[in-house]
Amino acid sequence: MYKPLPDFIDIQDSEIDGKGLFAKQIIKENTNIGISHVMLNDPSIWIRTPVGGFVNHSDKPNCMIVIDQAFTHLYFLFTTEQIMPGEELTVKYNTYNPEEE
After folding, report:
1. Rounded mean pLDDT of 48-61?
2. Which of 9, 34, 37, 88, by CA, is between 20 and 30 Å from 2?
3. Neighbours of 19 (CB within 10 A)
4. Which pLDDT tens digit goes with each residue over 25-49?
């Protein structure tokens, strides 16, 4: 069965902007949160999943977007540090190209 978010993530009101992704339990560093974006055959056409649609920007992010090297149209959200319950998951927008990681 499809689940838009893993059980350890919740969507809540964000102090950053609108809604955001929040940890419901401790999340270890380098955890794959799930698919954030899917690029269709045209590089200008993207589909955001709930993971990609609700993750907010921070200048001090605790996650990053990583491209799947085997399937170059899938992008995943990974934690870059341990995240505590109640902490918002964030990325730094437009500062890196996942294809160059």
Report:
1. 91
2. 88
3. 13
4. 999 999 999 989 888 877 778 888 8
